[in-house]
UniProtKB/TrEMBL annotation:
Membrane topology: Multi-pass membrane protein
Main location: membrane
Organism: Leucosporidium scottii
Function: Fluoride channel required for the rapid expulsion of cytoplasmic fluoride.
Protein's name according to its UniProt entry: Fluoride ion transporter CrcB
Length: 262
C-alpha cells in the first residue's frame, strides 16, 4: 500500500516534479511506485485461495471466500492509499526550487548511472558471498528489465484505446503468465538452491516490476465508472484465466508438492 500512497503524492505533484526535472515524475511514478506494487503476486494469491493450494483441508467455500476477500480488501486499500496520498500532498508545503537543467554531458552521466548500478548488481551476483547472493541479488538483476518493458508497453499501447489502457493490461497479464510458469517450475523436483533463487528472483524482480497495482488504480480512478469496472473486470478475469490454464493443471492433477527454497 506504500506504493499507492506515494503514487498519490506523485500524481498530485506531477507538474512540480516535471518542472523541477523532466524525468523525475516518470522515475518516481513508473519506476519507484510501479515497481513497489505488483499485480502478478496479487492475482496469484487470489488463485491460491480459490484453489486451496496451501490449505486444502479448509474446503472450497472457505477458499472461495478468502479469494474474494483478498480481491476486495487489496483493491479497496490500494484505492484508499492513493486517496490518502493525494490528500497528504495538500498538507506538504510547496517549495519553489529552480528547475534543474543540467548540461547534456551531465544529463548523459546521470542516465548512465542506472545501467552502471545494474552492472554492479550483476557483478555482486557473480562474485558476492555465496551464502546470500542468490537470495538477494537475482531480484535486483531481473527488476530493471521488467520496469523498462512496462514503460515501453504503456508508451506504445495505452494511447491506442484510452478507455482501456492496453499497455498496463498487457504488462500485468504477461507478468501473471510468467509468474504462473515460474511458480510451476519452483515445484519441479530436484531444483537446486541457486536455481530456486533465480526463479524466485524472476518472481520478485521481473514479474514484480513488470506488473503494477499503483498505476492500475490511478488508471481506474481516471476512467469513467463504466470503463473502470470494465478495465478491472478484464484485468482480473484475464489474470485468473492465465492462472487456471497454467497452475490449474498442476493443482487438479493431485500433485500439491511445495515450492523449492533458496
Amino acid at each position: 500500500m506504500v506504493g499507492c500512497l506515494v503514487m498519490g503524492l506523485v500524481v498530485e505533484r506531477k507538474k512540480g516534479l516535471e518542472k523541477l526535472y523532466a524525468p523525475l515524475f516518470v522515475a518516481c511514478g513508473t519506476g519507484f511506485c510501479g515497481s513497489l506494487t505488483t499485480f502478478s503476486s496479487w492475482i496469484h494469491d487470489i488463485f491460491a485461495e480459490f484453489a486451496n493450494i496451501d490449505q486444502p483441508a479448509l474446503g472450497r467455500f472457505n477458499g472461495f471466500m478468502s479469494g474474494v476477500a483478498i480481491t476486495i480488501v487489496t483493491l479497496g486499500l490500494s484505492q484508499a492509499s492513493l486517496t490518502v496520498g493525494c490528500h497528504l500532498s495538500s498538507f506538504i508545503p510547496r517549495i519553489h526550487v529552480p528547475p534543474i537543467r543540467p548540461p547534456d554531458r551531465t544529463h548523459l552521466a546521470f542516465a548512465a548511472l542506472g545501467p552502471l548500478f545494474w552492472l554492479g548488481a550483476i557483478f555482486l551476483l557473480a562474485f558476492g558471498p555465496h551464502s546470500w547472493r542468490h537470495r538477494a541479488t537475482f531480484a535486483i538483476v531481473f527488476g530493471p528489465p521488467g520496469t523498462l518493458l512496462r514503460y515501453y508497453f504503456s508508451r506504445r499501447l495505452n494511447p491506442i484505446y484510452p478507455s482501456l489502457p492496453l499497455g498496463t493490461l498487457a504488462a500485468n497479464t504477461l507478468a501473471v503468465l510468467i509468474f504462473a510458469i515460474i511458480s510451476l517450475l519452483q515445484r519441479t523436483p530436484g531444483v537446486s538452491s541457486t536455481g530456486c533463487g533465480a526463479l524466485q528472483g524472476v518472481l520478485d524482480g521481473f514479474c514484480g516490476s513488470l506488473s503494477t497495482v499503483s498505476t492500475f488504480v490511478v488508471e481506474l480512478r481516471a476512467l469513467g465508472r463504466r470503463d473502470s469496472y470494465r478495465y478491472f473486470g478484464v484485468s482480473w478475469v484475464l489474470g485468473q484465466a492465465v492462472m487456471v490454464l497454467i497452475l490449474g493443471s498442476w493443482v487438479w492433477s493431485g500433485d500439491r508438492g511445495g515450492a523449492c527454497s533458496a
